[in-house]
Design the sequence.
């Protein structure tokens, strides 16, 4: 089968006990092979620069599956081969039902074919009020926007709600992320607008290339991408 053969696309949903060991092993392997590499700011003693960011099933559970009853996985298969997935976690904030994208990965040979947006659309549930994500990749931000049918990112909504929503998250890296950028501190002048300091030093070469293309094609409202940071995006579900 050619890697570019897109004749059969299938989406599958897994929740709770449906996320079996084998399903999680496939997801961890896809992430490890296709997510990204460590950047130069990683602790030199660990000597990871340029190496693949690896994910094990145990780390997957620890990082993004705090409560299987409120987490789910959507994966996409092309001709019966898994080529992408989206994990999400849900919780309540005041009267709003929050759906947070905790991981989005697409096989490098299948990108820019609408699969990320398709995954996020399949991920959404009827009672979701807000879709959120922290990501260093502009393509993820744009996919969330498209899946939410947004024409413009509502910065005022992010400013007013991001901190409280994230503090209520059962996902620790979301809960503990420190919000930064001009949106949250108007005295900052480093070019960041809507960011979280997550200490995730993945290499930014590809995201920055995509970011430059997005800036040339349209207005990009979330500012610069800083090392060890991720963009913060919230969208009211349409």
Sequence:
């Amino acid at each position: 089968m050619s890697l570019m053969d897109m004749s059969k696309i299938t989406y599958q949903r897994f929740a709770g006990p449906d996320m079996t060991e084998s399903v999680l092993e496939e997801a961890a392997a896809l992430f490890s092979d296709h997510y990204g590499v460590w950047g130069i700011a990683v602790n030199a003693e660990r000597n990871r620069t340029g190496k693949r960011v690896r994910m094990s099933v145990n780390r997957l559970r620890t990082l993004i599956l705090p409560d299987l009853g409120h987490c789910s996985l959507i994966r996409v298969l092309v001709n019966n081969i898994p080529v992408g997935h989206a994990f999400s976690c849900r919780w309540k904030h005041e009267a709003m039902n929050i759906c947070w994208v905790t991981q989005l990965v697409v096989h490098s040979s299948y990108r820019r074919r609408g699969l990320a947006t398709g995954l996020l659309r399949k991920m959404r549930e009827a009672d979701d009020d807000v879709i959120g994500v922290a990501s260093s990749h502009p393509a993820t931000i744009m996919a969330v926007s498209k899946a939410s049918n947004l024409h413009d990112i509502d910065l005022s909504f992010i400013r007013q709600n991001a901190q409280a929503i994230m503090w209520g998250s059962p996902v620790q890296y979301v809960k503990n992320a420190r919000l930064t950028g001009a949106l949250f501190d108007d005295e900052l002048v480093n070019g960041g607008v809507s960011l979280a300091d997550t200490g995730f030093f993945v290499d930014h070469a590809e995201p920055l290339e995509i970011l430059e293309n997005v800036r040339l094609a349209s207005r990009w409202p979330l500012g610069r991408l800083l090392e060890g940071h991720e963009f913060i995006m919230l969208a009211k579900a349409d």
User: Anything to note?
Assistant: The first helix runs from residue 21 to 34. The mean pLDDT is 91.
